[in-house]
């Protein structure tokens, strides 16, 4: 059986690992390849956080369910992330408004509640690196085929799926896994352009700064533990949102993180730009333009950690540097990254082929463009990859044939829809609500938002965690489904 995965991001790598781990023992003839439109990961003197940032993103919060999914793929990959991310303290979230008032503090995704799989703040590049290592473990010498841009896929019935490339080349495979992101060519082919990606009217900006460069009061608040610990700070104002936290262990430098602790910061604000790609400023002038924009939005916001100037102003001043400047600065002091936010406004009718053949599967943002406001985008993509591979492996084991039948493909695809669409739909609803809270608000809107934050912070941790089902275990979910179907 020939499987082609389109997209070598976190979802694509996870699908490759999961298919080889779960399906290959039942199908020795399995062949899985990954093609990726990008030519390669770039290189930078500022290190992997900078070099990979425009391709694999900036920082992220990996929820307990996502960390558990990675552990099911590779315990070594999960350990790699936990050793290099901010785990102890990331479940504690401090909410403030732009006047510096604390709206509340709550715990979510505490590792003690989920068997050691807690919330972890980490650079996306570290997650990517962990999966690349697992890819090599399961890859039998396979390599990502960089610079191969898929432009269309066409179902050929029992013959398989024809894949068409930008250079005019074509090939036929048995199964296509579309993990090619929010502007997925596989999705566009599957549904004839019915579900285009659109800007949601918000822009993200962010980056990484060595903690050693920060003002002393802010540095102390980041590194403190116990009752003074703030964990992840999220601040809401009239014209946007600003968040920051560690993305490395407090104990850095250590064997895994030799460069000392790193702060990750991210801001979200409304924009009229509707056609924009991720970018880092190359020149000082470009970086200064971004800095002035952010200072105009956040420069006067207040914080208990303020010294001579606002914490937010300090972070923006340090963080808004260009590529040419970052290459001369401390290791892991990265250029500011602008990230436009795209969504697919209409929910897909299916994560697989309308024909129900099951020969094309969508996962991650290609299936459900998850706004970052849920903190579940990466986790849902990981769950998708594990759940689908488990279903395919279980149905194949039931048949016990040397090849995968049409029946196995159809059943696996139908079960994948049954298990993933309701769960992801619920999380998308939460993400939409959270995203709206970061848009411009009048006086009444801000008052109501602040009140809502205060109420949420008083809710029991178990109630808040249940919204995302942080205890989601793909293996148990699949077993329970198959036992009743």
TrEMBL record:
Pfam families: FAD_binding_3. Gene3D superfamilies: FAD/NAD(P)-binding domain. The lineage of its organism: Eukaryota, Fungi, Dikarya, Basidiomycota, Agaricomycotina. It comes from Amanita muscaria (strain Koide BX008). This is FAD-binding domain-containing protein. Signal peptide: none annotated. One of its GO terms (molecular function) is monooxygenase activity. Residues 350-397 form the FAD-binding domain. The keyword Transport does not apply. Belongs to the paxM FAD-dependent monooxygenase family. Keywords: FAD, Flavoprotein, Monooxygenase, Oxidoreductase.
